Amino acid sequence: MLVPMIMAFLSLTLKDSLNRQLNIIVGAAFSVLWFVSVIEAIQSAYWGGALMTLSAAVASSLVVWYAWKHRLAS
Fold first, then answer.
1. Do 57 and 41 form a contact (C-beta atoms < 8 A)?
2. Which is nearest to 25 in space by CA: 73, 67, 70?
3. Half-sphere exposure (CA, 13 Å, Cβ side) for 36?
4. Can you give the pTM of this predicted structure?
5. 19 near 10, Cβ under 8 Å?
6. Cα 57 from Cα 55, distance rounded (Å)
7. Contact at 8 Å (CB) between 56 and 12?
8. Which among 4, 39, 54, 67 has the fewest CB atoms less than 10 Å away?
9. Spatial distance between the Cα atoms of 59 and 3, rounded to a whole number of angstroms
10. Distance (Å, rounded) from C-alpha 48 to C-alpha 56?
11. What Rg value do the Cα atoms of the chain yield, rounded?
């Protein structure tokens, strides 16, 4: 839970180009970690955890998508 709070703070303090790069890198890393956790939760038949983890994976992927899209538009 600490990483999203740090990322929110850094988005206010960093320059736009550095903030976008950091969002892409950290978001991609977290997306991969969340998707691995989704697979583990499904294998253990923990469906509630799988759903919550899947929503976090989708949110991280959207952060990467919007950072990438905004970077290309600039």
1. no
2. 67
3. 6
4. 0.79
5. yes
6. 5
7. no
8. 39
9. 14
10. 13
11. 14
How far apart (Å, rounded) are the C-alpha atoms in residues 70 and 67? 5
* CB neighbour class for 28 (10 Å; exposed up to 12, middle 13-18, buried from 19): middle
Please count the CA atoms within 13 angstroms of the CA of 55 that sit on its side-chain side.
Answer: 5
Do residues 54 and 38 touch, judged by C-beta distance below 8 A? yes
Residues in the chain: 74
CA dihedral 21, 24, 29, 33 (to 10 degrees): 160
